[in-house]
Amino acid sequence: xxxxxxxxxxxxxxxxxxxxxxxxxxxxxxxxxxxxxxxxxxxxxxxxxxxxxxxxxxxxxxxxxxxxxxxxxxxxxxxxxxxxxxxxxxxxxxxxxxxxxxxxxxxxxxxxxxxxxxxxxxxxxxxxxxxxxxxxxxxxxxxxxxxxxxxxxxxxxxxxxxxxxxxxxxxxxxxxxxxxxxxxxxxxxxxxxxxxxxxxxxxxxxxxxxxxxxxxxxxxxxxxxxxxxxxxxxxxxxxxxxxxxxxxxxxxxxxxxxxxxxxxxxxxxxxxxxxxxxxxxxxxxxxxxxxxxxxxxxxxxxxxxxxxxxxxxxxxxxxxxxxxxxxxxxxxxxxxxxxxxxxxxxxxxxxxxxxxxxxxxxxxxxxxxxxxxxxxxxxxxxxxxxxxxxxxxxxxxxxxxxxxxxxxxxxxxxxxxxxxxxxxxxxxxxxxxxxxxxxxxxxxxxxxxxxxxxxxxxxxxxxxxxxxxxxxxxxxxxxx
Amino acid sequence: xxxxxxxxxxxxxxxxxxxxxxxxxxxxxxxxxxxxxxxxxxxxxxxxxxxxxxxxxxxxxxxxxxxxxxxxxxxxxxxxxxxxxxxxxxxxxxxxxxxxxxxxxxxxxxxxxxxxxxxxxxxxxxxxxxxxxxxxxxxxxxxxxxxxxxxxxxxxxxxxxxxxxxxxxxxxxxxxxxxxxxxxxxxxxxxxxxxxxxxxxxxxxxxxxxxxxxxxxxxxxxxxxxxxxxxxxxxxxxxxxxxxxxxxxxxxxxxxxxxxxxxxxxxxxxxxxxxxxxxxxxxxxxxxxxxxxxxxxxxxxxxxxxxxxxxxxxxxxxxxxxxxxxxxxxxxxxxxxxxxxxxxxxxxxxxxxxxxxxxxxxxxxxxxxxxxxxxxxxxxxxxxxxxxxxxxxxxxxxxxxxxxxxxxxxxxxxxxxxxxxxxxxxxxxxxxxxxxxxxxxxxxxxxxxxxxxxxxxxxxxxxxxxxxxxxxxxxxxxxx
Lengths: 480, 480
Hints:
3 domains, mainly alpha, 5% strand, Tetracycline Repressor, domain 2, homodimer, three-stranded mixed β-sheet
């Protein structure tokens, strides 16, 4: 972080956002006045006023942290966004593009010339470039690639070859290495030759001539030990190491469990190739929890809230189509019992209750199980215990809430038979919900699929159709 | 982290869990054999075999990181859990209690004697003690409190006086401070007198005689600059500072934006009182996303998957009751149209589709808006734009999907009127969903409530009852 950049507290950041908005507004008012000829439309005045505002904005932007500029860009409608983007100094384009959300990044890249993009990309490290690469036009990427030196090309290729959710995709190549047979004095002198250590350097990696990791020397250790001590005598010999192919998920669990700031990353030949730092892990965690939230609501990706309507429609289309399918199926289940409903119309009013409560209860079960699986707490031998427990919970809820609804149905329609069917159907549907709620994530996990994915849709589909079928079926058998 | 403790990779951790489980199983088999008298029931043999297993287990546990022991305890059923807990060395009880989930912590504390609890609590720092305090019996807490020195008591009181989601509750008091008028040489000598620097020390705080923060000196700066430089000449003068009353939410956003490892925390009189570190922030973020996930499914808190059924029933009760209420209301809306359904029973089969798709679409909208509000991207003046956009998306979806369903209804029931009513009802309900999906979080945010809370329940209630009302109402007007 350059020293000239401010770091802003949350409230200060909000105020800054307001200031920029106010400047943009003033600018727009001036332009519209000029446009409506209410001010002397003199090219010089226009240029001066505009220039003054632009200067003021540029000054603000220059002192802002790249992450804050990114935040600002995301919060502005497209026109204002591109105006501000134009005022950002070109040498900062790269780091800001890294910080903005995918949707906003797209809108910025669309507005840039190829040569601007090449210039922006060239400012980045190989690992950062790998993050940006998928969004760059291929001729720009080619251009950048040819400007890299051999080592950087190797790094870029390595970083791009790993899946998005692997350590290889999150790691960076900034690290300080030393040999084990030198003294701390030598290490201190070596460090003093740096202009700056890489961010998040909490430890120095100790490697041999072949880049094999011999241990790690934390700055903590370096600072408290006698300068005459040899590195090998104070380094930590078996630190946690990650491999490029490790899943980012398990790496982030390690960071959380052991409160790490950085870890060495090895390649297939067990050579030190880079490191993973806590900020990359935190970004990954936040992105993941966000994706889960969006997926839960059936959104493919984060939307730029200022994007055109058609983009939003596309983003939400798939989920609605799936739900339409399951809802239509449930509707046909009801259709099969139209004769019964015609004879006893109360069934139509009561059936959504049975289906709805089943869905809610099933979602509670599946959420618990998915969490427990994610934490690795569920072993195959625990399955029977879980079924017993969830079915037990459902039985209690079914008898209590189902009983209550049975009484209400009896009171409303004066038929104790209807009340009994209601209670029985609620209980059976809750048991079905519990069974499916445990089975779906367990089966998905068994087959190596993400148990969180789509479980909620599936369970709602089952409890809807199942609830209608059970309730209307029982009513047809015993009442009609 | 003590050097004798291993840090384990994800897979290694799973293997370790298996080993412990195997040991526990072997132990149980031996006990059951002894019990069934199939082995010579000799007190000495029993003791020896048990002892051997226990020793092996104890040895494993001793080398495990507290977080891993916690993980192990969470994954074991209650009996095994307490057996393992007994084998953990008493001086590690405190740090392990800090790591386990709330539900499991309760089960462990229940099994401990007051004097064991006091001993465990006394090993903790004031900030850690504050985390544990709410779960401790009050006589234990009293006992621990009286054993603290004045400074620690002050710290404990400060840490406990802040809300769970404030910086005060997450901070710690471990930090290194220096004066600004000394040279780096002096600082280095001072640090060398420490046995160990606090974890996550990436910077040293520079304070004056009154504990006012003058700046921060990063280890990075300390290591690369000339040892004769004075602290004041190389320190960063306006670092990001937090106050104890700041929200943990805004603090974690700052950590994410600026990739921080630690920040100074000031009290009301602007004196340096402690620091916030990235590991506390990461724990907070994970806990929060977990709570959101649980709340989404209507679970009050995380469940110990091995807890008795009744605990689970209590945890899920409230949500089911609310849903029962809204479902019952929707049922009464249908009840009001029973006459129409009796005449045209197809309505009963089609109405859940209208309600269901409305709920899904509304949840998509509310998820987008809540996210945008959380990121501070929505200003009051943007409201009109959002309504326009979401209503536009709904209109397109309504006409397209509603049109498709209208055709299906026409085909199934041979009534073009029914098809038209279906299309119109779908479109209107999707518009209602969009309107409510934007309004609910905006209004909640305006009144300073968490916009994420309960929005999903509310919108489903509206789109269910609203969907039934619109569809059956239109049908009654035009078809019956």
